[in-house]
Amino acid sequence: MRLGVLFSGGKDSLFACWKAMQHEEVACLITVISRNPESYMFHTPNIHLAGLQAEAAGLPLVEAETAGEKETELLDLRRALLEARDRFGIEGVVTGAILSVYQASRVQRLCHDLDLWCFNPLWHTDQEAYMEDLIGAGFRVIITGVFSCPFDASWLGREIDHRALNELRGAARKYRITLTGEGGEFETFVVDAPFFSRRIAIEEASKVYRNHNGVLHIERAGLVER
Amino acid sequence: MILVIDLCYRENSLSRAEFVGPVAGILRGVGAVPIVRHYTAVSAPDLEAADGVILCGTALKDRGFMEGPERFGWLRVFGRPVLGISSGMLPIVATFDIGIEPCPGIGMTDIQVISPDPLFAGKEIFAAYELHEFAVQVTDRFVPLAVSDRCTQALRHCSLPIYALLFHPEVRNEWIIERFFDLTESD
Hints:
The structure holds two protein chains of two kinds. Chain A is an alpha/beta fold. Chain A is built from six helices and nine strands; from the N terminus they run βαβαβαβαβαβαβββ. In chain A, the strands form two sheets. Chain A has a five-stranded parallel beta sheet with strand order 3-2-1-4-5, with helices on both faces. The longest helix of chain A has 17 residues. Chain A is globular and about 45 Å long. Chain B is α/β, with parallel strands linked by helices. In chain B, strand 8 and strand 9 form a beta hairpin.
């Protein structure tokens, strides 16, 4: 089955993509770029680097822009799915949804309307096992946004390795946040994945941080040999 | 042992983690021993060894498992608790000749309990996640246990411990799967 993967550049969508590759044929990545920083569906830091990640993965990228208003952004996603269906013949869509019924049910409805299969391979996954699998499989993931206590500015740009994961476990226990950031506590960016032919090297970045809220803006990045 | 039946389009499919994994995980969390089998690989010894069976849901477009509904004929004689989840209720309704009608539902909905049953004891209204394209028609062979504003959401066979849920209990209502496990323990 030829599939398109809804793609934000973060760990969940890329891990879902990797899972999909183990079972079906991933034909393209699909990204919706939101101009609304409050968008629940699509906003994510550094989405402008989706093209670079797609190049690293050797996959074509379907991009659609949205103003990010609550329901019109779904029309923009629909437009992107239609383009992916027409250009790449996709029969289904993959998402990295873990717990969000809000996001999952909106994508399910769109797929239903367009007669597409919908796959959520991380749906209600064991978050502890998932994070271990992510690291163990060779994904290199950095934190590019923090939006919750206890994260300070030092977390911005930090790679999620075993040591960071241990600290995240402690934070999850103490502050009742999710281990995966599914509650919006942090955002991630994947710089390397098992299916990348080259990894992403960040050449220039800046941090904006205040009161447990911060973003790492990646201003310049390129592909280098792994 | 709880036999968890994977109804997805292929053994070890991309859908399995979404529709089977969470159910098996909840069972493990309460000390149950789930054995997962794809519907094409369920054997007579599997059924004989099972204290209960859960028929998991599938993707909306996934209906391959209904191409041979006679493979679920064991439902008539199994005698121990069975729980069909969303499209996992289709083998039950086919086996017992219950009609279905188009009724798509995706997202959260309020469920109202309308008949007493150990599965829902102490609950009157709760929110649940639905992902279905059909609803079942009312029949005198099944007792409607719970409804939403659009359709019957939970049924129990009038004389066998067979339950059919239209919504997905593994999402936000894990307690229902835990109670089903309790039923298999006490049965």
